[in-house]
């Protein structure tokens, strides 16, 4: 999931990921046009995405559904700048990913996108607070600012009293809440989540999805969430379905 792939470097490879379009007002947070991605060659090639196009307005929580192998993770990897498309374009917050080189893509993922994993991805030797603070340490944020932001986010996800506990001392639902707080650490414009409730029971999964719904509103960010749970789909502003490598909007 979200594995690092090879990135295609364009002539504008030195462009900064924070160099947002001069006037992003009115532009969608995510614009995908005619996106194509295949694996393998010849008759054995698997066409994961076949000319996918869609927009996600700012401030929306959009759910992505589709059967296993439909290309959901491939699409999330491409939108998150973790893989390169064979064709088409992706624009995130006014920035065309094709204009970014390796450093620009790293900067984009660090500063503008928050990732939430099904497996939580927490560092077991760190406390909940320390896990949330990792992205801000990577940005060399001021220690006081970091501590205040960590406290605010743990409070937001209902874990203020668990700041000093390590992942192994937390339930699955609590660990996912820490992961959500960590994804929000650098105030991302976009949250990308691949089956974030896949390892949780139905009740806990619903609570986590409701939390995602709440943080999108409170933090003013946009979210693209892959899920197969009908209850969770009902909490989204919009549902996109992948079928045979093509998008169906409901």
From TrEMBL:
InterPro entries: AAA+_ATPase, ABC_transporter-like_ATP-bd, ABC_transporter-like_CS, ABC_transpr_LolD-like, MacB-like_ATP-bd, P-loop_NTPase
SMART domains in alphabetical order: AAA
PROSITE patterns reported for this sequence: ABC_TRANSPORTER_1, ABC_TRANSPORTER_2
Biased composition (Basic and acidic residues): 1-10
Segments for region (Disordered): 1-22
Domain ABC transporter positions: 30-250
Keywords from the named record: ATP-binding, Nucleotide-binding, Transport
Listed CDD domains: ABC_MJ0796_LolCDE_FtsE
MF terms (GO), sorted A to Z: ATP binding
Protein name per Swiss-Prot or TrEMBL: ABC transporter ATP-binding protein
Lineage: Bacteria, Bacillati, Actinomycetota, Actinomycetes, Kitasatosporales
């Amino acid at each position: 999931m979200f594995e690092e792939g090879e990135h295609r470097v364009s002539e504008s490879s030195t462009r900064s990921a924070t160099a947002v379009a001069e006037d992003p007002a009115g532009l969608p947070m995510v614009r995908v046009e005619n996106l194509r991605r295949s694996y393998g060659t010849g008759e054995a090639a698997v066409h994961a995405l076949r000319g996918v196009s869609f927009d996600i307005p700012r401030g929306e929580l959009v759910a992505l559904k589709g059967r296993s192998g439909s290309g959901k993770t491939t699409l999330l990897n491409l939108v998150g700048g973790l893989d390169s498309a064979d064709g088409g374009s992706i624009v995130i917050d006014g920035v065309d990913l094709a204009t970014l080189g390796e450093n620009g893509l790293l900067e984009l993922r660090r500063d503008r996108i928050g990732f939430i994993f099904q497996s939580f991805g927490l560092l077991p030797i760190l406390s909940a607070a320390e896990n949330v603070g990792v992205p801000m340490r990577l940005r060399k944020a001021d220690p006081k600012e970091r501590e205040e932001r960590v406290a605010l986010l743990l409070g937001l996800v209902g874990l203020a009293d668990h700041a000093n506990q390590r992942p192994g001392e937390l339930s699955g639902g609590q660990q996912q809440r820490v992961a959500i707080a960590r994804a929000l650490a650098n105030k991302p414009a976009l949250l990308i989540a691949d089956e974030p409730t896949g390892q949780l029971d139905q009740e806990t999964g619903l609570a986590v999805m409701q939390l995602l719904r709440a943080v999108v509103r409170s933090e003013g960010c946009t979210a693209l969430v892959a899920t197969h749970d009908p209850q969770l789909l009902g909490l989204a502003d919009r549902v996109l379905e992948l079928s045979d490598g093509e998008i169906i909007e409901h």
